[in-house]
Amino acid sequence: MRRVALIALLLVLGAAGCGGSEVVAPTAGTVEGTLPSTGGSTGDGDASDGKSLFASQGCNGCHTYTPAGSKASVGPNLDELAKHAEAANQGSVEEYTAVSIENPGAYIAPGFPENVMPAYASLADQQVADLVAFLTNP
C-alpha cells in the first residue's frame, strides 16, 4: 500500500511541474546604473564606415548629401533628413533613418514616388547603424 501511495505522490508532484507553456524569467523591478547597448539599427555606429557604405551602396547616385559630396535628386535631400524625420513623425531622426534604409516604403517623403529606393534589409545591423551614424552625425 505504501508503494502505491508513493507512486501516486510522485505522479502528482511530477504533474504539478508540467502543463504550463509560459516561460517565466526573473526581471528587476528597478535598474541601478546603465544597461549595455545591444547595438542594432539605432545602436552605436561608425560614421566613417557609414560614409564608405553610402558610396558603395550607391546612395550618392540618388541623394544629395553634402558630407558625401553627392548632388543627386532622385531621392530626398539628406541634408534635410531631420526635417523629413519630423514630418514623418515616426520616432527620432535615428529611428526614422534606420527604418527608411531597411523599409523605404514605410514613409515616402512628399514629392517623391513610391518604390524607387530599394530596401536594404540585407545589410547587417551594424552596417545600418554605421549609415545612421554617418547620416545623422557626419
Provide structural commentary.
The protein is globular and about 30 Å long. It is an all-alpha fold and 138 residues long. It has a two-stranded antiparallel ribbon with strand order 1-2. Helix content is 40%, strand content 3%. The N and C termini lie far apart (80 Å). It has a domain at 47-136: Cytochrome c-like domain (Cytochrome Bc1 Complex, Chain D, domain 2). Residues 23-28 and 33-42 have low confidence and may be disordered. The protein has helices spanning 2-16, 47-56, 81-88, 93-102, 125-136; strands at residues 64-65, 70-71. It has five helices and two strands; from the N terminus they run ααββααα.
Write the layout of secondary structure elements.
Layout: H1 2-16, H2 47-56, E1 64-65, E2 70-71, H3 81-88, H4 93-102, H5 125-136
Helix pairs in contact: 2-5, 4-5
Q: What is the CATH T-level topology of the domain at 47-136?
A: Cytochrome Bc1 Complex, Chain D, domain 2
Main sheet summary:
2 strands, antiparallel
Architecture of the domain at 47-136, according to CATH?
Answer: Orthogonal Bundle
Q: Proportion of β residues?
A: under 5%
Instruction: Work out the helix count.
Output: 5
Question: What top-tier CATH class of the domain at 47-136 fits best?
Answer: Mainly Alpha
Question: Could you tell me the mean pLDDT?
Answer: 79
How would the global form be characterised? globular
Question: Which class do the helix and strand fractions yield?
Answer: mainly alpha
Alpha carbon gap, first and last residue: 80 Å
* Total beta strand runs: 2
Indicate the radius of gyration in whole angstroms: 25 Å
CATH-level-4 superfamily name of the domain at 47-136:
Cytochrome c-like domain
Strand order of the largest sheet: 1-2
The helical percent reads 25-40%
